[in-house]
Amino acid sequence: MRNFSYQNPTKIIFGKNTISELANEVPQNAKVLLTYGGGSIKKNGVYDAVKKALDGRAVFEFGGIEPNPRYETCIKTLDIIKKEGIDFLLAVGGGSVLDGTKFIALAAKYQGADPWDFMCGKANSPSEAIALASVLTLPATGSESNANFVISRDSTQEKFGGWSPLIYPKFSILDPETTYTLPEKQTANGIVDTFVHTMEQYLTHPEYAPLQERWAESILTTLIELGREGIEEPKNYDVRSALMWSATMALNGLISRGVPEDWTTHGIGHELTAFYGLDHGQTLAVVMPGLWRNQFEKKKAKLAQYGHRVWGLLSKKPGQEGHDEVAVLAIEKTEEFFEFLGVPTKLSAYGVNAAEAAEKISKRFEARGLTSEKGLGENGCIGPKEIKEILESR
Ligand code: NZQ
Ligand code: ZN
Predict the structure, then answer these.
(1) Which residue from 243, 229, 241 is spatially nearest to 195, judged by alpha carbons?
(2) Whose CA is closest to 358, among 391, 324, 321?
(3) Are residues 262 and 369 in the same domain?
(4) 134 and 239 in one domain?
(5) Ligand 1 mean position, distance from CA 301 (Å)
(6) Which of 11, 103, 320, 362 is 20 to 30 A from 142, comparing alpha carbons?
(7) What's the pLDDT tens digit per position in 88-116?
(8) 100 CB under 6 A from ligand 1?
(9) In contact, 22 and 50? CB cutoff 8 Å
(10) For residue 165, with 0-12 CB atoms within 10 Å meaning exposed, 13-18 middle and 19 or more buried, which class applies?
């Protein structure tokens, strides 16, 4: 097993009626900025529950953080933060609200001229951040328990991820009942996102990490067993709670310790969102099967293991007759699963021309200096040429 360090400072408060815990968790004298999205929390009672729990505290509000949170929107908060002396951010919503709030927490402390500079790599991330916490309403990103954030900029059609240990939420409240009102599409996107996060820390090449592999396989199996039920029975508490905990566990930094990772699907997926506006989960359903076929020789041993342990296909050792067939079948099963959830796996289903997207996106990676020798993936061998092939095949 590879060397690693592990630390996750976020406290998770999980279960029914836990929003009331805000009264104990938010510092008494904090000047709070409550951030939220397009209004779902006002329709489903989450906003009222949050306000009730924060009664008596100084609370300011900023709504309108959109899916794939925009830099242009988030920086609008900087004036109110300065004017009111805000020292605590409470994000209430899905991954986009959480990510936007993480960016705000850093941007408010940034000394340079334009906070975009630390998103696009022109400047270092700030060395301070405003404290933040979250009430999660959409299980998918793991943002409630990690230090990642992804921000889009409209004017340049760019979408960049960032990481800073300063923006781990102090705590996150996960009440599965808040997810009852999710539209089917968002539940399905969240399941695909969780599935792909798990895969990107699992589907590489064999290395000795039996516990981490079983953790990953247990998340995948849970999603396959419960995914469709989560969509069809939106108010099934048990299913909602299992899906919510799966999403957190898939990207809180635990399952990746000591194992190789391949974040190519996310890398290409972000560009599909930036150029064509696809939902995050949709991009992943499109890209991952294409990546696996493109990198089949390097990934087939792990694909066959996944096929056997998660889909119950025949166990075959590398080199044994039928091994490659199991690996091929595992890719097909995955595509079928995404389609079964209602998330199409081909670009044409989203009205995107695959050849055009392949050209545009591979050029962008080329301009950023990516090559087949110094590229994405666990072997660093996915460059513009491979990215073009992957997208052309979708
Ligand atoms: O904006 P509102 O009105 O709240 O509606 C949202 C939004 O329209 C709605 N929604 C959320 N909770 C709801 C609800 N509707 C009804 N009932 C509820 N309980 O769902 C829509 C989508 O929300 P969004 O937050 O955009 O979805 P998600 O959580 O999938 O977040 C996607 C963003 O997270 C980034 C993605 O790139 C994308 O920008 N990611 C963040 C990661 C991280 N921080 O670690 C990792 C991920 O790989 C991902 O890249
Ligand atoms: Zn994701």
Answers:
(1) 243
(2) 391
(3) yes
(4) no
(5) 33
(6) 362
(7) 999 999 999 999 999 999 999 999 999 99
(8) no
(9) yes
(10) exposed
